[in-house]
Specification:
2 copies of one chain form a homodimer. The first copy, chain A, is of the alpha/beta class and 393 residues long. Chain A folds into 4 domains: 158 residues, 3-Layer(aba) Sandwich (Molybdenum Cofactor Biosythetic Enzyme, Chain A); 55 residues, Molybdopterin biosynthesis moea protein, domain 2, CATH 3.90.105; 83 residues, Molybdopterin biosynthesis moeA protein, domain 3 (Beta Complex); 72 residues, Beta-clip. Chain A has 7 helices and 26 strands. In chain A, a hairpin with a 6-residue loop joins β23 and β24. Chains A, B: Its EC number is 2.10.1.1. Chains A, B: Keywords: Magnesium, Metal-binding, Molybdenum, Molybdenum cofactor biosynthesis, Transferase. Chains A, B: This is Molybdopterin molybdenumtransferase.
């Protein structure tokens, strides 16, 4: 058996960074940039009023001074007349200031009678002017190293960036295997169950930025497996579930090897989900998950999500966080146990409580869980109140 | 001025829960269920082996006993012969057990010579059999009240649920207003800036489950505003930015009122983003955000996201969490200040540190921020190390 960390390092070795593509800014949410953009302009492009009010020369900014309003400057329509001492300009937020070296006095701080403006007796020190280039200057690079947020897109729009170079979305082909499986909506025979792994793996992959091809279920025979593998042509990552353990019915590894898989097979020191198969198959990475739905989901969280991150140039480490244990737990055996658990907000760290039953057949408990409590292999019993690690679900 | 909480309550009063629609399970990720589903079967549908090994009658489960292997049971292909005492069945994980009242002994715990199986001297107490209906019984309802996760979809697949009744995705029409705005990719004139609000609001809305219609920029004249509002026909929510303050150039409210908006306009006791306009316009709710991009984004977080949640039947409260203050901050004035801040993991709660500049013109700082530190109106100075509230970005 190898550790989860070793297995993660091995599956990540199978991953090659995807090619890049150019997309419109509007399509950027959640994508990962492959090259920096440069601001195409300076923001603000001009010194601009930060408030609605009146612009006047600094020399006129005296308590109680009286000025004449000569015109106005609005966002998009500056005032371009000449101004003499004692003259002011009505100005709105975002409008360019008429000249350097002025001050904007807030509209609520002045009194106005016709064109005559009177400043207050107590003046603010605040000029209420945004200097040119305060946010960014032309040429400033921007290269966030995370999945793009709405705010990233807003900043790049303001930089006048209309297109982005991003990593292509990984194409994931998903194959469930097993004579016992039928699709939802069908009527299962007496020994059959509904295929659920495909739906979990498709949604996890899509949430991680992938395009998913859900392939037909492969029966436990070589001809069926060959047919379904042929449908995965062109995928970046082929994910199977089932047929990856050591039982006699596990044909997936054999057929994949016949089709060119440089096969690696590991028993991983983890619960649930001991067996994992992986390799490269043509231009694709291949990940063979256990057939048990809880094991497949936990393995997808621990191995598939990092592979999808690495394909897109993102950090692939597990998102390990800390919480306070909400119930005593016994010692672990020779495998790290990823216990389905529930989080509750605490005064400081959240409290994490594993479900009473950790049977890997219970999808209901998996769906209810918020987190995988990590109980390292060989660890002793842990008491309520101790700090423990978890991975959010 | 009204408080943020009052304003939130008021905008939520404008929202009507959307109609429902039926979608295939495969499209369920992130959607919100409007009605429960019921499990169409019992899971496991039969008592099944939890491990690869050998099934035998409980009466034969004696230390060192010798049995004859009479056949095998695999997932999808049960053993349906008759068994006499002293006979065993090779069985694989997920396979139905041949009869009630048996035990599965793990393959690694026995020795086998031809068809002759010898049990170990020390027997486990574990039957390694999953009882029928351990996960869920036929008719069990499932009705999660959150955006559906991959695990929800897996559970419902296993329940043989092929279709879901969900709330329709809200259709959001986004309108930026202002003579000074041009779209990214254009060449701005000397007093113009690039429209960025549309891109932030579109991405925030999509991340919250909406379908977005990004409409043309409206110029600051009535004809242009009327034209663009007409393009919003059929939307559930119309979101404008710009033209919602009290300057003379704020025509949005006037035109919207001419088009039937029962207009509400509030100054909200918050920084940034004081002015907010809202109302109902035909069948749509309307939200008028400030034009300043930082203010628009913060207001979208505080008001637009809750409205989108409420449209889909989700809780609309702000996601307020706690952190340890990483820097001293001064007292607040008469408005609650949502300070752009950065989070760092701590030993317990994360540490939150507001950026030095809180100028609402700085999109670069907004993009870098992880969180809005909430500094309640009228609060005194807060010291490093105190526990404070924030909203994650």
């Amino acid at each position: 058996m190898i550790s989860v960390e070793e297995a993660l390092a091995k599956v990540l070795e199978l991953v090659q960074l995807l090619r890049t593509e150019t997309i419109p800014l509007r399509k950027g949410l959640g994508r990962v940039m492959a090259a920096p953009v440069a601001a195409a302009l300076t923001q603000p492009p001009f010194a601009a009023s930060a408030m609605d009010g009146y612009w006047l020369a600094a020399a006129d900014h005296r308590p109680g001074a009286t000025l004449r309003v000569e015109g106005e400057a609005a966002a998009g329509r500056g005032f371009d007349g000449a101004l003499a001492p004692g003259q002011a300009v009505r100005i709105f937020t975002g409008a360019p200031v008429p000249a350097e070296g002025g001050v904007v006095v807030l509209q609520e701080d002045v009194s106005r009678d016709g064109d005559i403006l009177t400043l207050p007796e107590r003046l603010s020190d605040n000029r209420n002017i945004r200097p040119r280039g305060q946010d960014f200057a032309e040429g400033t690079p921007y290269f966030p190293r995370h999945r793009l947020t709405a705010r990233d897109l807003g900043l790049m729009a303001a930089m006048n960036v209309a297109e982005l170079t991003v990593y292509r979305r990984p194409v994931v082909a998903i194959i469930a295997t097993g004579d016992e499986l039928v699709m939802p909506g069908e009527t299962p025979g007496p020994d059959q169950i509904i295929c659920s792994n495909n739906f979990v793996l498709a949604a996890l992959s899509e949430a991680a930025g992938a395009e998913v091809r859900m392939l037909p279920i492969a029966a436990d025979n070589e001809a069926s497996l060959r047919m379904v593998f042929s449908l995965a042509e062109g995928a970046d990552l082929i994910v199977t579930s089932g047929g990856a353990s050591v039982g006699e019915h596990d044909l997936v590894g054999k057929v994949a090897a016949d089709l060119g898989l440089e096969r690696a097979f590991w028993k991983i020191a983890m619960r649930p989900g001991k067996p994992l198969m992986a390799g490269r198959m043509g231009n694709a990475a291949m990940l063979g998950l256990p057939g048990n739905p809880v094991s497949a989901t936990v393995c997808a969280k621990l191995f598939l999500e990092p592979m999808l991150a690495a394909l897109q140039g993102l950090p692939a480490a597990h998102d390990v966080r800390q919480a306070i244990l909400g119930a005593d737990t016994g010692p672990t055996g020779p495998r790290t146990h990823y216990m389905r658990a529930r989080l509750a907000p605490g005064a400081g760290l959240p409290t994490i409580t594993p479900f009473g039953s950790q049977d890997s057949a219970l999808l209901g408990i998996l769906a209810e869980a918020d987190a995988l409590l990590i109980r390292p292999l060989g660890d002793g019993a842990r008491r309520t109140g101790e700090t423990v690690d978890y991975i959010p679900l």
